[in-house]
Amino acid sequence: xxxxxxxxxxxxxxxxxxxxxxxxxxxxxxxxxxxxxxxxxxxxxxxxxxxxxxxxxxxxxxxxxxxxxxxxxxxxxxxxxxxxxxxxxxxxxxxxxxxxxxxxxxxxxxxxxxxxxxxxxxxxxxxxxxxxxxxxxxxxxxxxxxxxxxxxxxxxxxxxxxxxxxxxxxxxxxxxxxxxxxxxxxxxxxxxxxxxxxxxxxxxxxxxxxxxxxxxxxxxxxxxxxxxxxxxxxxxxxxxxxxxxxxxxxxxxxxxxxxxxxxxxxxxxxxxxxxxxxx
Length: 279
Ligand code: OGA
Ligand code: MN
Known about the structure:
Blueprint: E1 5-8, E2 15-18, H1 28-41, E3 43-46, H2 53-60, E4 82-85, H3 86-89, E5 109-116, E6 124-128, H4 129-134, H5 138-145, E7 148-151, H6 154-162, E8 176-179, E9 181-183, E10 190-192, E11 199-202, H7 207-221, E12 227-230, E13 237-241, E14 245-249, E15 258-264
Parallel strand pairs: 2-3
Antiparallel strand pairs: 1-2, 3-13, 4-15, 5-13, 5-15, 6-12, 6-14, 7-8, 7-11, 9-10
Bound molecules: N-oxalylglycine (OGA) and manganese (II) ion.
């Protein structure tokens, strides 16, 4: 047993973790409990954690392998850590998304540590895509279980270009196909794996069917019924499961907001039929 205290933040997603100093090496018991908590709650919030970028990297390594970031504005304070600045990230992160579904092996998790925050605003929201799937009717679930979708960066690049920004320099232009419903490798739970920023169309449907179904799935999965809205404080650290959640950074502020970010390596999404569909 460890001294971890796990307090759920809503009825469907998110938990605050107390009783651990994440700047120090975790015991194997703590690491096990935290990985289990991430599987259960999908978003873990640690308050009042004074950590350096190197300590953040070490803590994240208890959950998986820290990956090389695709969008790197430079000035990495430690290997794998990027500095996310509000001025740069707005128009990329204030849309519902999971990170990098446009690659064959999208990240399994991501972590942010709050360094500088606006005096008000700048919350982040997540929804539980397992709960969103579970809330659908059985016939709808059965149809979605057999579908795959194209992810790409076309709309993201257009949207950020309109805002006078470019994030495309390191991102692939190809379409990647993933299952619409992915099975979590540890829990076996099914999660919707579509998001409005990157999912372009459903492969097996006609164009009009695809558009209407995706619009429905986006609206459904963005419901406050499945949501955690987190107000950051200085030294708050959050890790979330990228396979079973989508997130949205609320852009309701103008003051500086700076986070230290990293992602953890993932594997190709596996659909209900048990096969990875990435193509
Ligand atoms: C991200 C992201 C949200 C935020 O880092 O992938 O979407 O609140 N950030 O900064
Ligand atoms: Mn993101």
